[in-house]
Amino acid sequence: MGNTVDLMDGTAAELASSAVLVNGLVKRYGDMVALDYLDLDVHEGEIFGLLGPNGSGKSTAINCILALLTYDAGSVRVLGDAMTPTSYALKRRIGVVPQNVAVFNELSVEQNIDYFCSLYVKEKPRRKVFVEEALDFVGLREFRRFRPGKLSGGLLRRLNIACGIAHQPDLIIFDEPTVAVDPQSRNAILEGIQRLNAAGTTVIYTSHYMEEVEQICDRILIMDHGRQIALGTAQELKDMISIGEQISVGTLDLSERALDDVRQLAAVIDAHYDGKELVVRCGRGEHNLIDVLGLLEREHATIGHIASRAPTLNDVFLEITGKGLRD
Q: Please, are residues 61 and 22 in contact by the beta-carbon 8 Å criterion?
């Protein structure tokens, strides 16, 4: 009996700490399996990165979580409750910022935000406060009378965000919110997401910009072929792969023999030389840079710039999912 009680307590604790809990989710389109017994656990109060190549199942998973798609097997719980197509009270606690800007060109910035907020908040006085707070949050107060067609790409993205968060949801899903915006707008959007999270909002964040995910996400799930293939913090994911560091050395006279010798070093995974720069990918080791430079000096190669960097999340993504192009 003691074990049974412990198991029940553990399950209750898991439900209490999970903003989104997906177990064994299966979604088929005929013979094609879009989700293959996917498990996913987003903790309350975190920024959770959901990554995967095109066609990996990310969008299908999100649509199933939101009960916009039916699925063949598994379960979905959001904010502690089972999610169904008719879970209207639960859906009011969720915000979605889609990749494609979804606003009405006939309405002003303020009217757009008010309209989308009205889908969740019926009381006009309360909604007016929410709209004003959303305008301030995304920095669009001075553009409130503008129509979307008059906004720059970055401002339009910020309007898209305001429409998705104006009702002040507990969970927000951001689907590539920084596509095709300038660095200043991207920085403003990322800082805004972090402020929302600091105020207690749970965030699911999808993006193909690995540096963004590494910058803001607490944990990251990489999926492919409808399955989870890696999960952890950015550093934990980096520790899973073979690359320990990448060394770049500027040199104009590296011989083929010297390049072959570099490739034979114990920690070297691969090495490439384009006539100007030697790029060496190494496994984990304490003396990789010393070993490479020592060999170049023995070969009397001239050495210009030298750089060494730790693996990035992009390295992780490519090693885990492969480098082949996806549709």
A: yes
